[in-house]
Specification:
This protein is an all-alpha fold. It is built from nine helices and no strands. It comes from Chloropsis cyanopogon.
């Protein structure tokens, strides 16, 4: 972009302006940032729902693992559309585990006392974990419909039929 400056500012001495510094920065590779975002979301989900036995890096193939340790401005080979069926199976199991843990947490907290999901997770008002799992399924190349069906089955199995019908 063209930045016009007044003649009076040309003779000013001092540090470089923040605008000039920003323009000199390399552009980031957005798909790599999105790849990092998926890892952060997976890690946060594991931590928040106390999922045991999940190895986060097992959800990614070798290209995906290598991309985590590269500069965000570099153009990296990211996983393509063709995925190893074993990795897809691990991803599917992870997402179903997330949905099961979210429903179990919600149901156990409501049985103890009448508490809504927002009260149980006070810092995450409006966070719907099954919806997050369905959104994450898009990035992990798993069918959203599979995740949603599992959510409904979990709701019915915990006796929350009115939510399952919705």
């Amino acid at each position: 972009p063209m930045l016009d400056t007044e003649d009076a500012w040309l003779s000013v001495e001092g540090p470089v302006s923040i605008v000039e510094l920003a323009l000199e920065q390399k552009r980031i590779h957005y798909p790599l940032v999105e790849h990092q975002f998926v890892l952060c979301t997976v890690l946060y989900t594991i931590m928040r729902l106390s999922l045991k036995g999940v190895k986060p890096l097992s959800l990614f193939d070798s290209k995906g693992k290598n991309a985590f340790f590269k500069d965000l401005t570099s153009i990296q080979l990211l996983p393509s559309g063709d995925m190893d069926p074993n990795v897809l199976s691990i991803r599917q199991q992870f997402l179903l585990k997330v949905v099961s843990a979210a429903v179990q947490t919600l149901c156990s907290s409501q049985k103890d006392r009448e508490v809504s999901e927002e009260d149980y997770f006070p810092f995450e008002k409006g966070k719907n974990w099954p919806t997050l799992a369905a959104d994450l399924a898009q990035y992990l190349q798993i069918s959203e419909d599979l995740v949603r069906r599992h959510y409904v089955c979990e709701l019915y199995s915990y006796g929350m039929d009115h939510l399952g019908e919705e």
